[in-house]
Amino acid sequence: METKGLLLVFTGKGKGKTTAALGMALRASGHGLPVCVIQFIKGSWHYGEMDALPKLGVELHVMGRGFTWNSDNPDADRRLALEAWDFTCQRMASGKDRLLILDELTYLLHYGMLDEADCLAALARRPPDLHVVVTGRYAPEGLVAAADLVTEMQEIRHPLRKGVKAQAGIEF
Ligand code: ATP
Ligand code: MG
To answer: Is 13-162 CATH 3.40.50.1110?
Structure first.
């Protein structure tokens, strides 16, 4: 069966972008497809997927720093972001994967740490059978235009609003 590598974008302000991408990792790994996840923003929690993905044989690379919009060191943030992007470009060129998840990549574009045209050009050069999932709020217009599939998560309700704190297995 011929495979067409798709560019999929999960964006919007509602919860579910990263978990939808992880669901695809689960699904693809069940078919024995090589999957790699690159997280561009280091969260402050110990996320369950950090332990679960290796058990599935899925490679996970957590790169970058924490919350870059409120940073005490924007130069370091930018440098780490670009290192993470270089790593991603090498990874795409390696041909190792069939599914590559670029979690929170949209923030690098939104905050101008990575040039959108450069990013789109690199994605267009990827192996033809490589599916790429990009997650994160504020997906820029050019990325949305280039994608084969775009889903916008819309918040209807979130337990945080009632003061329910983040819980293991739900938020992290
Ligand atoms: P998840 O990782 O749970 O799929 P996400 O990737 O859609 O969430 P992000 O924008 O990456 O959401 O935000 C990460 C964290 O913020 C998660 O802990 C998530 O539950 C929480 N979050 C996401 N959307 C909302 C919201 N609308 N209100 C409050 N917290 C949210
Ligand atoms: Mg997310």
So the answer is: no
